[in-house]
TrEMBL record:
Biochemical pathway: Amino-acid biosynthesis; L-valine biosynthesis; L-valine from pyruvate: step 4/4; Amino-acid biosynthesis; L-isoleucine biosynthesis; L-isoleucine from 2-oxobutanoate: step 4/4; Amino-acid biosynthesis; L-leucine biosynthesis; L-leucine from 3-methyl-2-oxobutanoate: step 4/4
Keyword set includes Amino-acid biosynthesis: yes
Similarity remark: Belongs to the class-IV pyridoxal-phosphate-dependent aminotransferase family.
Job of this protein: Acts on leucine, isoleucine and valine.
Gene3D superfamilies given in the database record: 3.30.470.10, D-amino Acid Aminotransferase, subunit A, domain 2
Cross-referenced InterPro entries: Aminotrans_IV, Aminotrans_IV_CS, Aminotransferase-like, BCAT-like_C, BCAT-like_N, Class-IV_PLP-Dep_Aminotrnsfr
Keywords: Amino-acid biosynthesis, Branched-chain amino acid biosynthesis, Pyridoxal phosphate
SUPFAM superfamilies tied to this protein: D-aminoacid aminotransferase-like PLP-dependent enzymes
UniProt-recorded name of the protein: Probable branched-chain-amino-acid aminotransferase
Gene Ontology MF term list: branched-chain-amino-acid transaminase activity
CDD domains named in the record: D-AAT_like
Cofactor: pyridoxal 5'-phosphate
């Protein structure tokens, strides 16, 4: 069955949705995005995603084409008409249509597109019981990774390299320290502490990261926000990642070497459980 998608004010069957070939999102990756998960037909941490969207737009001097209230209505309407119980809502805003020129002018309205992806079993993911395998790869992305832009070529290539190596994902490394996964934030558990890279321009400020660290602190777990190396990660008791699509997902292997006992650990399992419970309760 065809999905209903949202394009610039209209709800359309996906086959009828159109964006111009002159859209700067297409020509220059001049756009930003958000991915919000859906559980029980409701949006997980929508305010967090709306706030980060505003920040990404502001950093790129772009106007938001809609208010937060309108954005919430569009998200909810797409979830409703497409009958999404578990899955995601993808949102993209680009600078809009203009004749091709590196410099942008005042012309054109932003382009806004939203669509849903149904993912039954998103929360009860068997990978959470098995754990993920990651490889390490150099981080060759641009320097403003705190802005959630649609220029995802390097992370896509890194993900393909991981697949070719028989792994699930890649952890990117810069100046000897892990930055993050291709589409998730990275953590280790060592010396009884949860360690994850501090916020800055080198990583995306994950909405799941913020919630999971809050949960960890509520559970009296110790959290250290600082860079860590691959060596430290390989010697850690546990490793895991967080994102809107994976929630809290254990990592059991890095570059072919087991982390801890090579199976998901108790810290990641507990954080996943409490995070999901709290987020389901607060979903809208
Ligand atoms: N990715 N780091 C990167 C590079 C990401 O692309 C993402 C999200 C995250 C986690 O952020 P959050 O917790 O807000 O989802 C960290 C989304 C899920 C994606 O591109 O599909």
């Amino acid at each position: 069955m065809s999905r209903t998608v949202y394009v610039n004010g209209e709800y359309l069957p996906e086959e009828e949705a159109r964006v111009s070939v002159f859209d700067r999102g297409f020509l220059f990756a001049d756009g930003v995005y958000e991915v919000t998960s859906v559980l029980d037909g409701r949006l997980i941490d929508f305010p967090g995603h709306a706030e980060r969207l505003s920040r990404s737009l502001r950093e790129l001097e772009m106007e938001s084409p809609v208010t937060d209230e309108q954005l919430l209505d569009i998200h909810r309407e797409l979830v409703r008409v497409n009958g999404i119980e578990e899955g995601m809502v993808y949102l993209q805003v680009t600078r809009g249509v203009a004749d091709r020129d590196f410099a942008w002018g005042a012309e054109g309205e932003p382009t806004i597109v939203l669509f849903t992806q149904s993912k039954p079993g998103l929360a009860d993911n068997p990978k959470a019981r098995e754990g993920m395998k990651v490889i390490s790869i150099a981080d060759r992305r641009w320097g403003r990774r705190d802005i959630k832009t649609v220029q995802l070529l390097y992370p896509s290539m890194a993900k393909m390299a991981a697949r070719k190596a028989g792994a699930d994902d890649a952890w990117m490394v810069e100046d000897g320290f892990v930055t993050e996964g291709t589409s998730n934030n990275a953590y280790i558990v060592t010396g009884g502490r949860i360690v994850t890279r501090h916020l800055g321009e080198e990583i995306l400020h994950g909405i799941t990261r913020a919630a999971v660290l809050r949960v960890a602190r509520d559970l009296q777990m110790e959290v250290e926000e600082r860079p860590f190396t691959l060596e430290e990660a390989r010697a850690a008791d546990e490793a895991f990642v967080t994102s809107a699509s994976t929630f809290v997902m254990p990592v059991v292997e890095i570059d072919g070497a087991s982390v801890g006992e090579g199976r998901p650990g108790p810290v990641a399992a507990r954080l996943r459980e409490v995070y999901l419970d709290e987020m389901r309760a607060a979903a809208i």
